[in-house]
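Per your request, structure below.
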């Protein structure tokens, strides 16, 4: 038996052309399926990309070191608290003055320096807190 039989070679060639012939129609079907998969995955990735961009923008706005001291509700709350504390300081100062006039032996005059320091700390508490918050924002930005 010869290794290259002409009849066998022709039959093998015809069978291969019939089964594996010029793949125009199957190739188009494969490309259509490939386009469909690319379109679906591209749409999913586009939606995921938009969601991640929205989350990143939101987190950037949240993590952005903005000065809390410029917020209106912080200023309003601090002004109310400061004014309320100042009313009590005025009452305490009136009490110290009356006790100094009426009862000189109780020595409430020694409480005046501490009272003034506390009054200054309360009245400047917003800028002091701003310095600490800005320092913390600088340290966390690295």
């Amino acid at each position: 038996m010869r290794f290259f039989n002409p009849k066998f070679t022709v039959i093998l060639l015809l069978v291969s052309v019939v089964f594996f012939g010029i793949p125009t129609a199957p190739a188009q079907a494969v490309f259509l399926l490939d386009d469909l998969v690319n379109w679906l995955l591209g749409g999913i990735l586009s939606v995921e990309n938009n969601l991640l961009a929205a989350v990143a923008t939101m987190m950037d706005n949240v993590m952005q070191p903005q000065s809390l001291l410029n917020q209106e509700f912080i200023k309003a709350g601090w002004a109310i608290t400061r004014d309320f504390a100042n009313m009590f300081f005025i009452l305490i100062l009136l009490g110290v003055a009356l006790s100094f006039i009426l009862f000189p032996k109780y020595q409430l005059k020694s409480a005046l320096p501490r009272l003034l320091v506390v009054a200054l700390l309360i009245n400047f508490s917003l800028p002091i807190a701003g310095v600490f918050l800005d320092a913390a924002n600088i340290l966390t930005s690295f």
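Residues 24-63 form the longest helix (40 residues).

Regards,
D.
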